[in-house]
Design brief:
The protein has helices at about 25-45, 50-75, 80, 100-120, 120-140, 140-145, 180-200, 205-225, 240-260, 270-285, 315-325, and strands spanning about 15, 20, 160-165, 175, 230-235, 235. By secondary structure, the chain is mostly helical. The chain has one domain (about 15-270). A hairpin with a 2-residue loop joins strand 1 (about 15) and strand 2. The radius of gyration is 32 Å and the shape is globular. InterPro entries: Lgt (IPR001640). Belongs to the Lgt family. Its EC number is 2.5.1.145.
């Protein structure tokens, strides 16, 4: 018996009356909301409108979920289509099984549609969302903890994960908590992307490419530790090959993009700057607090109007009037 370990949840779903609240789905939903919130802050800081990130996420998130599930099913078809398996389970996304690369690929298609409808460059939007996506992944990985899945090799380290009811027919025991390793690494990736973006003003998709490259580094380590069934090519897990290819592509993009399109976009959302100027104009017209109000400029009297006004001439005009008549 291990003296110190990370316990697994006894159940992965809580029933709120007739409504089941699954831990895996809850982590995904929380991750999406946090990503939209933080991505919106970064987008506004880049000069965009508040709310634009959420509008585009309406397209990106559903596409990403479908893409993530498709990647998982295509790369592990034996789980659903071999003899004795029920292919209907391929649609049970709440039971786990989302491939990040499929989510990014098809999610990018949805984001492109949303950006095109708003006249926004996809690369600028992706740069603003890059660290937010990493944070969403860090939160979403805890869904694997609820499902007791995707753990690593057996270990006796003090932070070993105690698996009691493994999914996929595994053996109960103590394993490397690869979900925790990846969750922590995603937070590191988010911090590094934010730092690099402030340091070098990354633009034209380079911040997002940096996120992909850094994520691949950590994902390669967790893939090496994982013991769940997976397809292999030349002795390596399929996902490990995918990680290596994506890392090379991301680095190439950063290098070539920096040469071809240095700097970052000056305008990320058409019209956003004009709205900010219009909102600031009335405040500027009010003047500084405590300043004396300016007197209205005198206007010339219209034809036939008494210059003295409707109340008649003042006292001095009354004294001067008679003398003028005597002359």
């Amino acid at each position: 018996m291990e003296l110190a370990y990370i316990p697994s949840p006894s159940v992965g779903v809580i029933h709120l009356g007739p409504l089941p609240l699954r831990g895996y789905a809850f982590c995904i939903i929380v991750g999406v909301f946090v990503a939209v919130w933080y991505g919106n802050k970064r987008w506004v800081a880049r000069g965009g409108r508040s709310g634009t990130v959420a509008d585009i996420a309406v397209w990106a998130v559903p596409f990403g979920l479908v893409g993530g599930r498709l990647y998982h099913v295509v790369t592990d078809p034996e789980l659903y289509f071999e003899k004795g398996e029920d292919w209907v389970n391929a649609f049970k996304i709440w039971e786990g099984g989302l491939g990040i690369w499929g989510a990014i690929a098809l999610g990018a298609v949805g984001a492109w549609i949303g950006c095109r409808r708003r006249g926004i460059p996809l690369a600028a939007w992706a740069d603003a969302l890059a660290p937010a996506v990493a944070i969403a992944q860090a939160i979403g990985r805890w869904g694997n903890w609820f499902n007791q899945e995707l753990y690593g090799k057996a270990t006796h380290v003090p932070w070993a994960l105690h698996i009691t009811n493994p999914s996929g027919g595994g053996t109960p025991g103590y394993y490397h908590p690869t979900f925790l390793y990846e969750s922590l690494w995603c937070l590191v990736v988010a911090a590094l992307v934010v730092w690099a973006d402030r340091r070098w003003q990354l633009g034209h998709g380079r911040a997002f490419a940096l996120y992909v490259a850094l994520y691949c580094v950590g994902r390669g380590g967790t893939e090496y530790l994982r013991v769940d069934e997976a397809n292999h090519i030349l002795g390596l897990r399929l996902n490990l090959w995918t990680v290596m290819v994506m890392f090379v592509l991301a680095v190439l993009y950063i290098v070539l993009s920096a040469r071809l399109r240095p700097g970052r976009e000056s305008v990320v959302e058409p019209g956003a700057g004009d709205e900010a100027d219009e909102a600031a104009a009335p405040a500027a017209g009010e003047g500084a607090p405590g300043a004396a109000p300016q007197a209205p400029e005198p206007t010339a009297p219209e034809d036939g109007e008494d210059p003295a006004g409707p109340e008649g001439p003042g006292p001095q005009a009354k004294r001067v009037g008679p003398a003028a008549e005597k002359g």
